[in-house]
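Slide 14.
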Amino acid sequence: ENCNVLIMYNPSDNLREILQNVAKQQGVSNMRKLGHLNNFIKLLCKVGHSEEKLGFTHEEIIICLRLALLNEAKEVRAAGLRALRYLIRDSTILQKVLRLQVDYLIARCIDIQQSNEVERTQALRLVRKMITVNALLFPSSVTNSLIAVGNDGLQERDRMVRACIAIICELAVKNPVVVAQRRGLSTILKNVIDCQLSRINEALITTILHLLNHPHTRQYVHSDVELEQILAPYTDFHYRHNADTAEGQLKEDREARFLASKMSIVASFRSWSGIINLCKSGNSGIQSLIGLLCIPNMEVRKGLLEVIYDIFRLPMPVATADFIEALISVDPSRFQDNWRLSDGFVASEAKVILPHRARSRPDLMDNYLALVLSAFIKSGLLEGLVEVITSTDDPISVRAIILLGELLHMANTILPHSHSHHLHCLPTLINKAASFDIAQEKRLRASAAVNYLKRFHEKKKRGPKPNSLYLDHIIRKSKASHYCRDQHFRPQRDIFIIKDTEDALMMNLRDSHILNHKENLDWNWVLIATILKWPNVNLRSNKDEQMHRFVRRLLFFYKPSSKLYSSLELDHSKARQLTVVGCQFIEFLLESEEDGQAYLEDLVKDIVQWLSSSSGLKPDRGLQSNGLLTTLSQHYFLFLGTLSSHPHGVKMLEKCSVFQCLLNICTLKNQDHLLKLTVSILDYSRDGLSRVILSKILTAATDNCRLYATKHLRVLLRANVEFFSNWGIELLVTQLHDRNKTISMEALDILDEACEDKANLHALIQMKPALTHLGDKGVLLLLRFLSIPKGFSYLSERGYVTKQLEKWQKDYNLKYVDMIEEQLNEALTTYRKPVDGDNYVRRSNQRLQRPNVYLPVHLYGQLVHDKTGCHLLEVQNVVPDLSYTVRSPMLDKWEGIKQLKAALWALGNIGSSNWGLNLLQEEGVIPDIVVLAQHCEVLSIRGTCLYVLGLISKTRQGCDMLKQHGWDAVRHSRRTLWPVVPDDMEPSPNPPSLLSSVPSTLSLASDSTSSRHNSESDSTQPSMYIMDDERLENCDLSDDPPMYMRPKYKDRSPFTLLASSHFRNRLLHSLSLSGKMLRSTSDPKGTTRDHGGGMEEDQGRKRTVTEPSYTFGSSDVFPIYNDGHLSSRVEI
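Slide 15: predicted structure.
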């Protein structure tokens, strides 16, 4: 019905008419009332909320509107709720609504469930508006209704249950009192076990963890009872979430509860409050979980292993009794779908296989993992896994072996020596493998596990290898020592005894069947490869007709026009071998010089003709998208790449106009796959046409091709291509001005990684690029200039340093906190940062590899690399001001907490060099940071202190200083092979009363005393190694270093700090396990230290087998004391 309001007249008259019609019980139809309520909203939006303009008081309006909530029509009730939502603008109006008891009517609307979703939706939107206006005024009547739906909604199939739970979580954060009084926190935890969607499950449990973080809200959560509800599906073998679950559905229901419980446990270990509350001393949640590993329940064991794999961000092996198959399934080198030519190709593969360039830049994920790992080890995880290995069915046992190997490898990498030196003794496993007093089945399983761990260690020591021939080609040609001896391009000539005689060569020619068989695939390709790599044999030195016939037969097979090699499918069983031999054939012809020129020219011209056909009306099938993606024709680019890396090959490419052909392809449309292949195979180590082609693709191709070419520059950077700083940095700087923001930000990220090397940083400063237009990340890259004198002078002359100091003191220190915590959230949770302000984020179910959170650049951290910068901070009184904030924190409000975090991060960055550390020493602020790490009631502050102490331990001087306060640190950089612990670092026995071998803080850093300015990229320990005597017996040290002396491609973590004295349980008293057996130690009586032999660790690090770091009494237990008292409850 038409009931339009003419707002140009007096608004009070309009409002009177509206309220009269809404309040009338008879004579006005529901449709008319609905129209008037809608007009009320229009009037409100036009005129505003002023009582003078409206002509009625707010109470009078509310009294009339509440009558609409009693109407028999759900549409009218929904419109009334909507009208109230628009009316409630501030706390004053909300108080009047509550005073008139409208909240009971709102609760009634929520409770009614009679196909009235429109009404209930409006009621919930009104409830959210009330929370937004003033959550402290929220009425308990509505809270009761929300909690009722949250408790029973799933059983009643109520579609509003998730919305109600979301509102309860929002309310719990803003007004925990009203939720806790109505038992709403139990409702949240109940729904945690009901929810199998990771993002929702994480949001629910994070609400509880948020309340545990602050002392003001911690009182509302009974962590001993409520938080550990999430463990019940595992710890209670007869667990039933709902009493009325049918017997036939019990198994399915139990699997669903396992999944929900796993999600919540993992999410809890992603937060400081969750870690501390689940790992506290006594009967903690972590002890309950690990204890279950010793109970022979296969279902629970399988579920717990999945939980532990997820907590440590490790890939889950396939369920199989075959150890090798399981090991291959978690190999980072295994093929991934996004490595295809149609997707990310070599750029995606290299990002996984090749390590980040950072050597000493702290990775905050190492800090986090070191703390969690130490807590699990101290709770007996290694012994629990040994029990699973020796008493479980094969598939579960295999998973446990791989998990044990991964954790030992991780412990050796990121835990200090005092916390990890004894772990690899594994006395329980060794005893079971060697003892005849136990069942034969267990002994055999233990013995097999020892052998499997050895194979696992050997695989870790080799490091990840490239999967594709393209990445393998790049690494080999860049002469990176990491992979020189392990290439797929190497012939398998050791299979056959090579007799350096002409008779042997002729015999191999006959046995290869190439001269007398027409079936190409039946040829002996291993022998063919052997012939091609035969010492001192080529066409120049061997004029025999049979050798020329051998070459002609191979040439005919590989020519595109023959359609023999090029028509084979990529997944053919011999595809890889044929391509490898093809590249060796190219090298053979190159070595033959003039005698091989004709053959080589014939092959290259045929490839050029094949390439040129792409511009014709009827392109060759091999160059069509389906052919290029599925056949070996794409590998012709590897042949061209082999030529481009050889001086004679480059001349041949020029002679046959290959470069011109590739330049022409750059101008073609819809040839993205060809351009990807072109970018990926050319050799850019020499100045020439290869770089011209790359530059053209970077600037003139389509958006997708320009982005891929930009990403490929990261591949070249990580592959350590020669002289990258001379030409690669210039190309990256050009990309900073690309019209596509995604490309410019990718180039910026690559430049940030490139600046880990001083040569690249100097080259970037020399170019004086414009970076400020790229936002905060551009500013942070510019700040890296300050770490070397040349860059400091460049920015100082322009007055940039002074401006930045003012900016950071004003607000950027606070912004830095947001930046770091957002990166940590992205790495640890399901949160994904929106792009360009868009709230929608595309998510995928693809499992991500373990992320890195490298510490962002901080102004103060860059200034302290030079004495001039330190003097500038001293003049500005930066350290005293920050120290005051640390000593007098205001923890009652979140603003004060954020200011304290900003001060801590600033001080940590200042303390990351020796110059800055002297400033902290003079101020005496380090003990105050330690006290915060041990006693702060806000647990997220303790977590921040862990990271900050890690920054301080980045230098040897910092490590020594922190050791005086009871903190241990890893004292080697990521790529240090088999570091030797100095004598003064060997752990000394401590009295049992002071033992609390529990990590209190983790920090990453690497020793930087070898550099006067403590630059990140140069700060490493002296090169000290211990190598296996057996391997050294026959090695020729004058030649290239053998495989086991190559640097590992697996990044070693920077320093990890763990408390080693009685102070440790101050930070994580919950990790102090009173009355527990020491895990993973050797014989209680102690073994003598064997300096002659060594034990090889997973990363390749050598350690002597030593006795435990502490001596125990006959009870073999270590009680934890903290000045005679247990620590107070802590949260993160």
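Speaker note: The beta strands are 967-969, 1057-1059, 1095-1096, 1102-1103.
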